[in-house]
Amino acid sequence: MKPQDQHPFAPDVSFDGGDLDCGNGLLLLIRKHIDPMPRGQLLEIRSTEISVDEDLPAWCRMTSNDLVSFTKEGKQRSFLVCKGKMAERGKVEPRPVAAVSAPPPTAAPQARPVAPVAVAPLPALAVTGIGSWPRPRWMVEAMHAHVEGRLDEAAFHETANDAVRLIAAAQDRAGVDLMTDGEQRRDSYASFVAQRLDNCQLIPLTDLLPLVDDPEEFERELRALDIPAADVRHPAVLGRIARTRPLVGHEFDFLRTLTGKPIKVALPGPYLLTRTMWMECLSERAYDTREQLSEDIVTALRAELASLIDAGVTVVQFDEPVLSEVVFSGPKSRPSFMCGALSESREPAYELGFARDLVNAVLDGMPRERTALHVCRGNWTPDESVALTGSYEPLLATLREMKVGAYLLEMCTPRAGEMEILRALPDDARIGIGVVNQKHHEAESLEEVTAKIAAAIGLFGKERLLLHPDCGFATFADNPICSTSSAETKLAVIARAVENLRRS
């Protein structure tokens, strides 16, 4: 596009990006301004950076926003961008942007060792989901409206409460022993923390395309891996992160009003968050290295863990699926999408040691029996052929050295290898075995699930075992793995098999 003398339309919103380029903060400012705008409105972006002349039109094409016009006077540039298509301008009634009334910041609790709180004990062969559950369509719409600033905090949580009521009732019907809230308030199992931590922002994966070495190749890989890049959002670090309000405590507070059963709350692990949030082009203004970033992540997670245990959460589960990417993705010859796999990594030995030390730093001094670790091989698509494959053997030494009280592991899919290898894990830890595959729509037969559980009992005994699906039912809000009816049916099959085996 050639520069014009002036814009043909007046902008609805304007901001000055100064000399920032797209790889050093300009895209974050664009996202901050454009997200709350109704479709069809016009955003003016002022810039003195020459590279924006090429990068901004590319961003507009990839995000399906129209670049309307471009002016230039000396070094000063001005770009007029329509949110969505110009054809939508005037056809959609402007919607007022709801004020987001976030809770006032509160002082973060001191990270400290805590005494165990009396909670209901888990029965032998306890049945649980991993975490996520398919969100109703109206919940997904509310989530997008909230992220984009069109739905305030109170209205969003009222909507989420209704969704959690449905998920809690479904788990009760299925016979679940250890409840979760289905992660209904989260856009994904990990990136949601960007909405809860200070100096973080959620941005669509499409915003990252101009930042990678080969945007077209990256876009092809996402399509091949069945990743909805326009809907999946990624956390971006804008400054030193801090936890000044709970990350997930409010989820637990509501769920315990619905059930008297033990409750599990899942948190993204410190290694996963460090790998996910560290992107040199976005983080270098706040942190010199990802190791520095990891220190603040550990501080935030320790405070959250202490708060959850104090509140009476039975099990706090840390999700670390990127461990699989470290050992199974090979020399990057095959694309892998594990959220954190987008960022830098070093040789496997370093990464595994780094992950171990981060997990142990979070858990240090905490009641071990109240903590768990979940590891899988990718859960973003029902297409098993694009997920990672390999037994737990190269991870066993690292898992053994992590001071967790339970391991919840993918075991139903043949991609995970043989169950017997897990006997090398600590004898005093619970072992969670995946006995249904959440990626398959059809539920496994009662006989099949019973046989898997019986084999696990033979290896670990009834008291140590937890039973669950291989992974969550809806890693990303916009990309559920299965339906709500399928999720309930699969948990019910596990519960029926367990009931029979408890009596035997």
Task: Outline the fold blueprint.
Layout: E1 13-16, H1 26-34, E2 42-47, H2 52-63, E3 66-73, E4 76-82, E5 126-127, H3 137-147, H4 153-174, E6 198-204, H5 215-224, E7 233-242, H6 249-255, E8 264-268, H7 270-277, H8 280-283, H9 290-311, E9 315-319, H10 322-328, H11 348-363, E10 371-375, H12 396-401, E11 406-409, E12 430-436, H13 446-460, E13 465-469, H14 484-503
Parallel strand pairs: 1-2, 5-13, 8-9, 9-10, 10-11, 11-12, 12-13
Antiparallel strand pairs: 2-4, 3-4, 6-7
Helix pairs in contact: 3-4, 4-14, 7-9, 9-11, 13-14
Characteristic key phrases:
34% helix, TIM Barrel, 504 residues, 15% strand, alpha/beta, seven-stranded parallel β-sheet
Please tell me about this protein's structure.
By secondary structure, this protein is α/β, with parallel strands linked by helices. It folds into 2 domains: 13-88, TusA-like domain (Translation Initiation Factor IF3, 2-Layer Sandwich), CATH 3.30.110; 126-503, TIM Barrel (Alpha-Beta Barrel), CATH 3.20.20. Helices cover 34% and strands 15% of the residues. It is built from 14 helices and 13 strands. The protein has helices at residues 26-34, 52-63, 137-147, 153-174, 215-224, 249-255, 270-277, 280-283, 290-311, 322-328, 348-363, 396-401, 446-460, 484-503, and strands at residues 13-16, 42-47, 66-73, 76-82, 126-127, 198-204, 233-242, 264-268, 315-319, 371-375, 406-409, 430-436, 465-469. The strands form 3 sheets. Strands 5-13-12-11-10-9-8 form a 7-stranded parallel beta sheet. A 4-stranded mixed beta sheet has the order 1-2-4-3, with helices on one face. Strands 6-7 form a two-stranded antiparallel ribbon. Helix 9 (290-311) runs parallel beside helix 11. The protein is elongated, with a radius of gyration of 23 Å. Mean pLDDT is 86; it is low at 92-116 and 331-335.
